[in-house]
Amino acid sequence: MSIALTSPAAPTSTRQEKLRVMVVDDSVVIRGMISRWIGAEPDMEVAASLRTGLDAVNQIERVNPDVAVLDIEMPELDGISALPQLLAKKRNLIIIMASTLTRRNAEISFKALSLGASDYIPKPESTREAGAADIFHHDLIQKIRHLGAKVRRTVSHASPSLAPVLAREATARPAAAPVAQTQLMRRPFGMLAPRVLLIGSSTGGPQALMSLVTEIGPVIDRFPVLITQHMPPTFTTILAEHLARSSRRPAREAVDGEIVRAGQIYLAPGGRHMRVVRHGADAAIALDDGPPVNFCKPAVDPLFTSAIDVWQGGVMSVILTGMGSDGMRGGKDIVAAGGSVIAQDEATSVVWGMPGAAANAGICAAILPLNQIAPKLIRLFSGDRS
């Protein structure tokens, strides 16, 4: 599981501006714990604490929450069944799915994303595990805060008639943005032809990744693609399967020691950092169980930095939507070695933390809407240097 303690908190709101959070879970212990955490935050409040999805559907119009933390397994009406009904009644509702780390729940969480959930969060197996509970606490509060801020910014800049539509679109599958950030400094793309594609992502990443790999088949066929997505074990297994289906190319969790080949997508397995090392004339995967980097595990920076020793200036990196700043330091190293960084723009990012950190650091050669990244990569890997 990943956390991003470096991500800046949204400015503290006035009481009238507090994020209203609806907690829906059949466990009274979990409901109480999450409610206490939310109540302790100055910029959010508990709008309702409910036992079933049916309760949530029946009360959402009265409660009018900004964010719902929705359990998957509940009596009467489970989370995946309640999800579309909640969105039908409040289109701009931020829904964070919560589930334990099982393959079934991971599959359901991915289905929930396709149905309009904004994000997911794995619950610890036991709340008595202090470390796991602390990570869950921090991750949940950060997701509520940043996703809530995203939809509020969208609504506040929209006309009253368009606000609900734009709010929902802000947290759905990222679409085309009108304009990329033109005011931020760009640097030229590296002069060397790229030999590998590295991608880092976090919150909103699964949807963005599946959209991207669908469009970059010509790159995957000729070059290796390595991805670090902030995600726990089991979830990365499912994500790799989804990436394989979306790309129609081989995609799986990386295996320690395997040789990196073109035509393959390698995904960092949950809970382990993925690096690359030299292996004779080849590159090989190196997984490790070291401490979190940027409070994340797996983290993007170890992959980015390690690739320089193998491919020098032939590294093309992409930083997609996500909280925190992971990838920025590794991106600096890539640029210093002669490689290039592309960042997803703010308008199509669910959270513009990671790509925003890279963009504001002045290390990006391009800052693009999600739907423009694939065409750009295809041109660059075909020899275009601009």
Description:
The chain is an alpha/beta fold and 386 residues long. The chain folds into two domains: 15-171, Rossmann fold; 196-381, Methylesterase CheB, C-terminal domain (Rossmann fold, 3-Layer(aba) Sandwich), CATH 3.40.50. It is 39% helix and 19% strand. The chain contains 13 helices and 14 strands. It has helices at 28-39, 53-63, 79-89, 103-114, 130-156, 163-171, 205-215, 217-222, 235-247, 300-311, 328-336, 354-360, 370-381, and strands at 19-24, 44-50, 67-71, 94-100, 119-123, 196-201, 225-229, 251-253, 265-267, 273-279, 282-288, 315-319, 340-344, 366-368. Strands 8-9-7-6-12-13-14 form a seven-stranded parallel beta sheet, sandwiched between helices. Strand 1, helix 1 (28-39) and strand 2 form a beta-alpha-beta unit. Helix 2 packs parallel to helix 3.
Residue share in helices? 25-40%
List low-pLDDT spans: 1-15, 157-180
CATH architecture of the largest domain: 3-Layer(aba) Sandwich
What does the largest sheet look like? Answer: 7 strands, parallel
| CATH class call of the largest domain | Alpha Beta
Work out the helix count. 13
Rounded Rg: 20 Å
Strand content: 15-25%
What's the average pLDDT? 88
Structure class: alpha/beta
The coarse silhouette is elongated
Q: Which fold does the CATH topology of the largest domain refer to?
A: Rossmann fold
Query: Terminal Cα separation, in Å?
Result: 37 Å
Beta-strand segment tally: 14
Number of domains: 2
Secondary-structure element sequence?
EHEHEHEHEHHEHHEHEEEEHEHEHEH
